[in-house]
## 1
Amino acid sequence: MKRVLTIAGSDSGGGAGIEADIKTITALGGYACTAITALTAQNTLGVAGVHPIPAEFVKLCIETVLADIGVDAVKLGMLTNEAIIRAVASVLPANVPIVLDPVMVATSGAVLLPDGAIAALKDELLPRATLVTPNLPETAKLTGLPVGSEDERIAAGRALLALGAKAALIKGGHGDDERLTDYLVTAEAVEAISLPRLHSRNTHGTGCTMASAIATGLAQGLTLLDAANRARHYLQEAIRTAPGFGAGHGPVNHLAKPL
């Protein structure tokens, strides 16, 4: 059983953040450890409040896990503010895969990372990332580039590599094509992962789920492409079989099996 440390915010609704990460890692056969960066009061309709955890305590959680349990991969999600970003960067292990999900805006539209912290994320964490997994709005925000076409999305992925990431997965969920296509961009190649788009309101926590699934695959020794493929198929089935809870963007079914 491989150990995955997720560093992210808590979602009281259970569909995203730490809760989604733990469910995903467990469903795919990993062991989840956590460092919580913020408590959020939220449901499928939106985020009612955010309570950041002190940066030094987040750092202590990470150090305590590393000192005893150890990790085989790290997943980074909602990091809340610049102080937490810099604290996390100071204690990240150097010898394990790191999957960075640059959480900036919730599915409901709530801002989860202020503009002032984005520069710290680009400076401190992008160069440490084995893989960065932005959606299309996050890709545009990080690179300042358009992301409307296939060529533009691939170019933006290469721009993220130029900022220091070893690989970028440009996710197509916010597009409107009938097929949902993610582009895995590395220095060596561009791989497209394409599946039929599921028209569903149950997409809360999909970014968290995808990143955690990839981190688990990397911890288990899968190649980057195989981990991304398994994660995308797992998430596809999790959306298809979503329980339908709530009146807004509902959670996915984390007990789903990859197709």
## 2
Amino acid sequence: MKYILLLVISVVLFTGCKKEQELSDSEIVEGLKEALKVGTDTSATILNKTDGYYGDLTVKILLPPQADQVMQLKDQVPGLAPLVDDVIQQINRSAEDAAAEAKPIFVNAITSITVSDGKNILFGADNAATMYLKSATYNSLFTTYLPKMTASLNKEFIPGVSAQNTWTELSTTWNNYASTFAGQLLGMNQVNVTLDTFVTQKGLDGLFLKVALEEKDIRNDPMARVNDILRKVFGELDN
């Protein structure tokens, strides 16, 4: 009886050890990349909808920091306040439009990255994979995404009206008034901002934020693991 008991214990221990060894480094990397792909697909789909950016205060794009004075004094300049509101809505609409282009750009970046410390990422923070992707690919993502955002900023969602045109009208109105005696009394400074660069940066920041939230769901909610590799790899976190 004693030997049978020892045999059973040995089998259990061996099975447990074997289970821990079942997850290879390559599977961990595959699982992390799959989580990022799923997160990107979901995030881009959400942000691509009307009010994806504009209606979500966590990712809504406001005017560039260089235009803080515009926000403070918009009611002092005739006709400026409605232009400010129009620009904010239109740049967010442009970001929502460009989000559709994010999926293949992100998937290419995810596929191309080399993950050398997969276990540390897997057992790291809730956003560890997203932050790794951002640190490894942000510059190349920005370069690829910029022309997509530029095209969206110049797109006329209403005939004759685009975010870029409205921004040009707003900044011209502001700068003209800033050069007047009244503007000088108010201490107004000229505003010169490259809009597409700023909106691309904020658009990507919003995407990464949403991808991080999707990664957190996959890590913490088994129902969010929509395929076998996600269930296998992230199931390790449930142990």
## 3
Amino acid sequence: MEGAKEGLATAVRIMPYLVAMLAAVGVFRASGAMELLINVLSPITRQLGIPPELLPLALMRPMSGSASLGILAELLRTYGPDSFIGRTASTMMGSTETTFYTISIYLGSIGYKDARYILAAGLLADFTGFAVSLLICTLLFGR
């Protein structure tokens, strides 16, 4: 009984952080900011040999697991699971974390406010996961 009471109190404590995170993701996608950012980054990623089709997944994965799962499903439907983009996107999904969501839930549950080092480490880990996924898939499957 005590554990259930404590769990309910934790759920109530993290609710504002969760709602804020989900609202931010919704605003980011609905405002067109994601498309604008992709349009700005696409020429750079093409120069680096990164398919621009993977950019929406790379931008959304640190924020939302369900949104990135939807992007993955669309990539798989469009390009197929055995394509380079499908394999790389699948590897990226398995190699990264929903950093902002995780930080907001865990730190919100304990009331911790200063997340700058945790955020930097999490985003660096996500970037590394994306880069290594691209490298491994290129080495194993070619283009």
## 4
Amino acid sequence: MNGVLLSQTGKIGRPELKYISVPEATSTHQPISHYRIIEALLETLSFRHIQVIREEYAVSPDGMKMFGILDLEYGMTGVNFSIGIRNANDKSMRLAMTVGYRVLVCDNMAFHGDFMPVLHKHTKNLDLVELVSIGVDKVQRNFVPLQHQIEQWMCRPIEDEQAKLIIYAAFVEGQLLMSRQLLPAVHRCFFNPEHEVFRAKTFWSLSNAFTSSFKELKPISQFKVMAKLGPFLEDKSRLLPIT
């Protein structure tokens, strides 16, 4: 799945960020151009041969706050990681990035990912290039365990009865605390997947069956249950016999 950006004011392109004015700095606070932040991030990703395949941005009505999503091509077929980013030049929040397989950024301050490599105040001596460079280094290091888990799940076969028990635990036993109305969709996506890549009965295919069915939910509800899904499936994976 891709990162999700929700905005009440509408989305804009990266070039439009260039024309948003930046307030004067003070002795303790250094506002930073939204456009300059994104350019520094894109340049740093490029140096590390990480390709951005989609990007979206939104700003508050006064231009002081910026929110963005960048989907990345990271060498895994069928899997995209995303970076969520936000900035505020009115001292209302820190410059921050969140990264992961499931990322949500919203102008109501919802900001979710698997880990947060950057969270920094707009201090007078803030070095943007260094901050972003260190942040992207953390991104690459933290991608390794995420990528390893996904690869393990792709190679982990699962029997039909095992899959049914996990789906039963999620909905009937209520371990995911979500509507049972999605149960048929999860069952269908696992046992009759639309895409060839998920026809093999693996733990990754089961994970995709859940995430595909969640697309029927509104974005905020979708990401709330996504946050529960990872730990739930990790727990079930540990309980399965190794074949």
